[in-house]
Amino acid sequence: MINLEEIKEQAIDLDKVYDYAAFPDKISGRCDNCNSAYFKSSVKGGVFLRECRQCGMKKSI
Questions:
Q1: Rounded-to-integer distance, Cα 58 and Cα 48, Å
Q2: Per-residue pLDDT averaged across 25-54, rounded?
Q3: 33: how many CB neighbours lie within 10 A of its CB?
Q4: Calpha distance 22→3 (Å, rounded)
Q5: CA-to-CA separations, 59 to 3, 4, 28, 34, 55, in angstroms, rounded
Q6: Which tens digit of pLDDT belongs to each residue from 1-29?
Q7: Contacts of 26 (CB under 8 A, 6+ apart)
């Protein structure tokens, strides 16, 4: 039987850059991994990249 907690706690690969359209924030403006609201942002090649300063999770927006 599948445990509901296991589905909610899916492993997040911090080396991967997630696409915001496919994986929107669970809580708007908060990191999905550590729930921090402190990000550093950069633009390179026309792609806006948001990285959590606490855990390093990245999303392209």
A1: 10
A2: 94
A3: 16
A4: 24
A5: 27, 25, 13, 14, 12
A6: 444 344 445 688 899 999 999 999 999 99
A7: 32
